[in-house]
Every structure is written in structure tokens, then in C-alpha cells.
Specification:
Helix 7 crosses helix 18. The chain starts with a helix and ends with a helix. By secondary structure, the protein is an all-alpha fold. The longest helix is centred in the N-terminal third of the chain and has 35 residues. The protein is globular and about 65 Å long. It has one domain: Amino acid/polyamine transporter I. 71% of the residues lie in helices and 0% in strands. This is Amino acid transport protein. Its main location: membrane. InterPro entries: AA/rel_permease1 (IPR002293). It is a multi-pass membrane protein.
Length: 466
């Protein structure tokens, strides 16, 4: 078989279903929506509306969230069809292997590794900062040496809290999916209740004059804001990683994915509107915009409650993303493109080695390495996966065998999948040159790994040679 035929060789759905049958199907539609909300409503709702309003969109941040939601909505329907027809672990990585071929599947998987790992590391650092501020309110303070990334010139050597929270979440998930999902559902409910408290209290301090001018940076600022707040929506795609552990996946996966997006969009728009109505957008370029706004109107007690909500929000985001990244790494190891021990399932129906590897990598990133602009790479990783999934619906429908499987169908086919893919490409053009250069380095590294290791150890390649 020639190299061109080899890298575009497509995976067999039956092999995936057989391998993934070791997972225990325990998740319901409600669990999926809670996992999705846990991932999507995290740092974004407490920070992004303020910083993006101040620097890019002004009160027009409301429209930025709407635009980002529209892009996500059409992509979400494409994800829902794939998850319904192909109820397997690995999300877009596995879908890519089946409809595009192995090399494209690897590129998607490599993009998702970037998305999941950097997202959790960035949020772990944010969680640690909020935690340190929270305990400072009680007169407690950790030694400076263990409160930041490795930077001896500024007296910091390790962000110990970031490492500990990642390890704690990984341990909770490893103890059992049922237990971790139940805990996640409770914390999601608390988080949403706290956001509602902010909306109710903040609405009394809204001044319509703060919404003028609505778009101080112009229409381009609103679109640039949409590209940035796209980070806030990342996570709904992680729901599809759980397909192999979902009861009645054909029904529940679309409900979980689309339901997540609807609920989260409503909350983002409401928070953005109230926040920019309470305080002039010019003052919101701070790390804790929601808390800052409440303190400005002398609601310090509610501000304290919101800080707890921020910790809860970031906690549930990390639960979903660590869970999803371990399932992604399992899927790549299952196919032999990374060491096969990652694709093993233990007696508790969990990918223990994949979880351990993810935990170590995220802990190192969050604990020792200054992330800075690397967080922007999360967006491009997400958008690449969304683009391939959107256009992949056309290939899915053209496959006679897969098209026979009944499940959710994207409406207005083929227009909507094409529009979804084009919107994702447009959103990528709104990202900075630095983000593109850094992502190019990442994908060159990924191709080196694929051609030096993955293609020689691939289970698909071995099956073909027999």
C-alpha cells in the first residue's frame, strides 16, 4: 500500500464499537448537559465579558457572544449528528479517522490535545489565583515561592495550588464516573444559582447610559470580540467524548450537546448585559470583572459569594476537560498512534494510564510554566476540530453504510454543514499572527510524531498488513 493510500485509510466503526464496549454506559441526558455546562460556564463568564468589553467590543460584547454562539450552534448540530450515528470515544478525533482517514484524524486529535490540555492548565492557574484571594479574606497567605510558575527572579518556583487541584480532580474522576458526575451536577447547580444571584442584584444597578456607545470599537471590534469569547464556549464539544459511556447515545448525545449550548448562551448574554450596564466598559479590564462591578456598587457580600461561584465554575470546567482529555488520549492510544498502554481500560471501566498521563502533563504546565498567550492556542485547536467536523457531515452522509444508521440529522443539509465550516474558517482569520505561528509549530511537531511513530505502530496499518 502506497503512503498516500495509507494515510487516508479509513477506520472501521465495528472495531471502535468492540473496543469501547469495555466502558460502562451510565450517563443520562441530564448528566451530559451538566457536564457541558460545567465545562462551558467556567472562567469565561466571570472574566471574559469584562476584559473583552473593555478592550475590543464595549457593550457590543453582547453581540460578540451571540455571534460566537451562532458559530457554535451550527457546529454543535454537526457534532450531534456524529455523536448520534457514531457513539464512540474520542470525539472529533475518532470521527475524523472514520470519514477522512487516519492522518486527518491524527491532526484533529492533535488539535484537541492542544485545546484540552492548555485549557485546563490555564484554568488551574486561574483557580489558584482565585483561591489565594479567597483565603486572603480570612487572613491566610501561602508562601510566595509556591504561588506562581517557575520564575526565581520574582520569587516564585511552583504553583502548588494549581497542581493540587488538578490532581484532586483526576483522583475524583478515577474513583468512579458515577461519583464524579454526581459531584459535578451538584456544583453546577450551585454555580448557576450564584450567577442568578448576580443577575438579580446587578439588575438594580443597571444604567442604560452605560450601554452608550454600544460599539465604541466599531463592527470589527464586535467580531474580534467574538473570536476571543469563543474561548468561553469551548467545552460543549467535550460532551461528545463521553459517547461510549452514555445510555441511549442516539437520543441523549444530541440533547446533551445542543442543550448545553442553549443554556450557556442565555447565561452569557444576560451576564454581559448586566455587567456592562452596571459599570462603564472602560473600567472592566480587570481579572475579576464581575466581583469588581459588585464592589463598585458596594455589594461586597454578594461579591464574596460570586468569588465562590468563580471557584465552582472553574472546578467543574476542569472536571469535564480532564475527563474528556483522558478519553481522547485513550482513543489515540487505542489506535496505536501513541503508546498502546494509553488505550488500556482497567477493572473499573476507566482508562487509568491515559488519566495519569493527562494529570502529569497538565500539572507540569499549570505548576511550572508561564502560560501567557499560549491560552490563545486553545481557540485555534477548537476551531480546527469544528471545521473538520462540519465538513465531515458531507462525507458521513455519502457513506452508504454509515448513512443507514438512524440518529439525529443536521437540518438544511448540505447548506448548514458548509456554512458551519466556513464560519469556523472565518473565526480563525480573526486570531492573532502569534497564535498562528505557535500553532504551526505545534502541528509540525504533531506530524513529526505521526510519521516517525504513529504510522508505524497504527493498529489500522497492522490490520491491513495481515
Amino acid at each position: 500500500m502506497g503512503i498516500r493510500q495509507r494515510i487516508f485509510q479509513k477506520e472501521n466503526l465495528e472495531r471502535y464499537l468492540q473496543k469501547d464496549s469495555q466502558f460502562e454506559r451510565t450517563l443520562s441526558a441530564v448528566d451530559l448537559i451538566a457536564l457541558g455546562i460545567g465545562a462551558v460556564i467556567g472562567t469565561g463568564i466571570f472574566i471574559l465579558p469584562g476584559t473583552v468589553a473593555a478592550t475590543k467590543a464595549g457593550p457590543g460584547i453582547i453581540l460578540s457572544f451571540v455571534i460566537a454562539a451562532i458559530v457554535c450552534a451550527v457546529a454543535a448540530m454537526c457534532y450531534a449528528e456524529f455523536a448520534s450515528v457514531l457513539p464512540i470515544a474520542g470525539s472529533a478525533y475518532s470521527y475524523g479517522n472514520i470519514v477522512y482517514g487516519e492522518m486527518v484524524g491524527w491532526i484533529i486529535g492533535w488539535a484537541l490535545v492542544l485545546e484540552y490540555v492548555l485549557a485546563v492548565a490555564a484554568v488551574a492557574v486561574g483557580w489558584a489565583a482565585y483561591f489565594n484571594s479567597f483565603i486572603a479574606g480570612f487572613g491566610l497567605k501561602l508562601p510566595k515561592a509556591i504561588t506562581g510558575s517557575f520564575d526565581p527572579a520574582h520569587g516564585t518556583y511552583v504553583n502548588l495550588v494549581a497542581i493540587l487541584i488538578v490532581c484532586a480532580i483526576a483522583w475524583i474522576i478515577d474513583e468512579g464516573l458515577k461519583t464524579s458526575v454526581r459531584l459535578n451536577n451538584i456544583i453546577v447547580a450551585v454555580k448557576l444559582a450564584i450567577i442568578v444571584i448576580f443577575l438579580l442584584v446587578g439588575s438594580f444597578y443597571v444604567k442604560p447610559s452605560n450601554w452608550t456607545p454600544f460599539a465604541p470599537f466599531g463592527v470589527s471590534g464586535i467580531f474580534q470580540g467574538a473570536a476571543v469569547v469563543f474561548f468561553a464556549y469551548l467545552g460543549f464539544d467535550a460532551v461528545s467524548s463521553s459517547a461510549a459511556e452514555v445510555k441511549n447515545a442516539k437520543r441523549n448525545m444530541p440533547i446533551g450537546i445542543i442543550g448545553t449550548l442553549v443554556v450557556c448562551t442565555i447565561f452569557y448574554i444576560l451576564v454581559s448585559g448586566v455587567l456592562t450596564g452596571m459599570v462603564s466598559y472602560k473600567l472592566l479590564n480587570v481579572d475579576d470583572a464581575v466581583t469588581f462591578a459588585l464592589q463598585l456598587v458596594h455589594q461586597n457580600f454578594v461579591a464574596g459569594i460570586v468569588s465562590i461561584g468563580a471557584l465552582a465554575g472553574m472546578f467543574t470546567m476542569m472536571v469535564t476537560m480532564i475527563y474528556s482529555s483522558s478519553r481522547l488520549l485513550y482513543s489515540i492510544g487505542r489506535d496505536g498512534l501513541l503508546p498502546s498502554f494509553l488505550g488500556k481500560i482497567d477493572k473499573h471501566h476507566a482508562p487509568k494510564y491515559a488519566m495519569l498521563t493527562v494529570t502529569i502533563v497538565i500539572s507540569i504546565l499549570g505548576g511550572f510554566i508561564p502560560l501567557g498567550q499560549l491560552a490563545n492556542l486553545v481557540n485555534i485547536g477548537t476551531l480546527i476540530a469544528f471545521t473538520f467536523v462540519s465538513f465531515g457531515i458531507i462525507l458521513l452522509r455519502r457513506n452508504p453504510k454509515l448513512n443507514q444508521i438512524k440518529g439525529f440529522r443536521v437540518p438544511f443539509y448540505p447548506v448548514l454543514p458548509i456554512v458551519s465550516g466556513l464560519l469556523c474558517l472565518f473565526m480563525m482569520t480573526q486570531l492573532s499572527l502569534e497564535t498562528w505561528v505557535a500553532s504551526l509549530v505545534w502541528f509540525v511537531l504533531g506530524l513529526i510524531i505521526y510519521f516517525s511513530y504513529g504510522i508505524r505502530h497504527s493498529k489500522m496499518g497492522h490490520a491491513e498488513s495481515k
